[in-house]
């Protein structure tokens, strides 16, 4: 996971799998369509435009976005075989950025 592109690809796969885990595939596709039409955000751009993804997810799901974000983070840490501190109070974007930064230092 040293290269940024590898991490971004893992993040995209994890987000996709997490959305399908929490919802159905059709709902995940609906979320992607909403992000595309309302935010001009393609699925492939999510890792590069995490702020836009986070904003769109919250606008679409309201408080339900926090549950989805928690699942995404738990799955991402699991995919990386890292232990996540569940009491960690960082927000979703900052957690992703911190994880990405930590992996660069390895």
Keywords:
106 residues; mainly alpha; Non-ribosomal Peptide Synthetase Peptidyl Carrier Protein, Chain A; 5 helices; 0% strand
Order of helices and strands: HHHHH
Reading off the top of the CATH hierarchy, the class is best stated as Mainly Alpha
* Total strands: 0
Query: What is the fourth-level CATH superfamily?
Result: Protein of unknown function DUF3227
How many helices does DSSP assign?
A: 5
Low-pLDDT regions:
none
The residue fraction in helices comes out at over 70%
The residue-averaged pLDDT reads 89
Q: Which second-level CATH architecture applies?
A: Orthogonal Bundle
Distance linking N and C termini: 9 Å
Identify the overall geometry.
globular
Q: Return Rg in Å.
A: 13 Å
Structural class, please?
A: mainly alpha
Within the CATH hierarchy, at the fold level, what is the topology? Answer: Non-ribosomal Peptide Synthetase Peptidyl Carrier Protein, Chain A
Largest sheet: none
DSSP strand content = under 5%
The number of domains: 1
How would you explain this protein's 3D organization?
The protein has helices at residues 4-22, 25-39, 50-61, 64-79, 92-105. With 106 residues, the protein is mainly α. It has one domain (4-105): Non-ribosomal Peptide Synthetase Peptidyl Carrier Protein, Chain A (Orthogonal Bundle), CATH 1.10.1200.200. Helix 1 (4-22) crosses helix 2 and helix 2 packs across helix 3. The longest helix has 19 residues, at 4-22. It is globular, with a radius of gyration of 13 Å. The N and C termini lie close together (9 Å).
